Fold:
Amino acid sequence: MSSSASFRHSIRRGLSALFAASIPLYTGGWIGGHQSTFDAKGPVAASQLDLFYVTLWVTGIIFVLVAAVLAYATLKFKARNEADEHAEPPPQGHGNPLVELGLIGASVVALVFIAVPTLEAIWYTYDVPDDRRDQTYEVTAVGYQWWFKFEYPNEQIDGAGPLVTANELVIPAGRPVRVNLRTIDVIHSFWVPKLAGKVDMIPNRGNHLWLQADEPGYFWGQCAEFCGQSHAVMRFRVIALNEADFAAWTANQKKDARAVETTASADAAPRAQFAGFRVNEAGWSPEFDANPLDNWVQKQFPEKSENPALIAEGRRLFVEKACAGCHNIRGHEGVGITGPDLTHMGSRTTIAAGLLENTTRNLYRWISEPHHVKPGNKMWVGGYTDRETGNRILELTSEDVSALVAYLESLK
Ligand code: HEC
Ligand SMILES: [Cu+2]
Structure:
């Protein structure tokens, strides 16, 4: 074994022990959660976590040593009686050259100990390793105030360019994914704590990162660079699927928006009615949180209780109320590109950039009061209200909103 390999080997063994020691902290909820970097689910996040532990333990040992010497000196030389308090200080020397050189040497060793794995991690996380490049799947993430667009250059649609989705990045599990990072406006930063991060999305600059989810799973992402009023709620999700499910997903997403046959008999069916939303009300339920991947799977199928007449009315209103000018719905009337693509809106688990669970109630809440959910969002400013004067320019009745909700939910 080469010396650098055995060095790495001993670091790994040490790290596994430290990892085991930190499990109680994690399971105790102290360092867990959706966006915890302590729960790495892929090689890039794992290498970043390893590096964190190396630094933590080197600096931790230094802290303990310094604190111990300080405590020793404080206790040993403290005044013990009246006479001590008035005694002359002991003779003051310049110091011991051996001790001083020794301390300088120890600091250098400590820094090298941190620097070697740091450089290794920087190179490793910069791009997909050469020996895995042929397995790489590529996507482009574009930051908008305050949501994410995802483009799939490998999934071209005849006459429509690459597949485009928003706010939920679906990737194949077990494969390296190279994410090209772009922005349409200000600087954003792409961060999926359990998989990799974070790298800035900078205007006129082509950044990238790579990540991999070892197993199928559902992960939280977050913009990590302050980008304006609703920065804190500029989120997204990453859904990793096995190869077959991923192929099925891309095949469905490449299809035009789903069209529902209208039947006259459905006209009398009831509309959803919701009222009394609170500002900052929680956006998702514990049930969803407990099993988001299952929930995602359910969302891929049309609901049995669909109301075709209501859906048809929603589709008409989508044009009449000018939603179509900001949102693309491929194959239907939506042609806008300033808002998220809604071609398969009904198959997503979240609304408003990962902020609300995609339920009938939340969709209703978002479409009727977008500014309560996300202050300053560009659907409210410019869509519902005049950008210059702030005057309301779009009014929706609760009937309109229920029809729009039914339409968007039908887009699987
Ligand atoms: C002025 C452009 C504009 C208009 C008009 C507009 N939207 Fe939006 N819409 C946006 C933007 C921008 C977002 C992203 C907001 C955010 O998350 O910050 C958005 C988000 C959404 C979302 C959430 C999408 C997701 O994946 O998170 C839905 C659903 C939606 N709009 C529906 C509608 C409907 C229905 C109408 C018509 C009543 C409409 N929009 C009108 C710009 C617009
Ligand atoms: Cu941002």
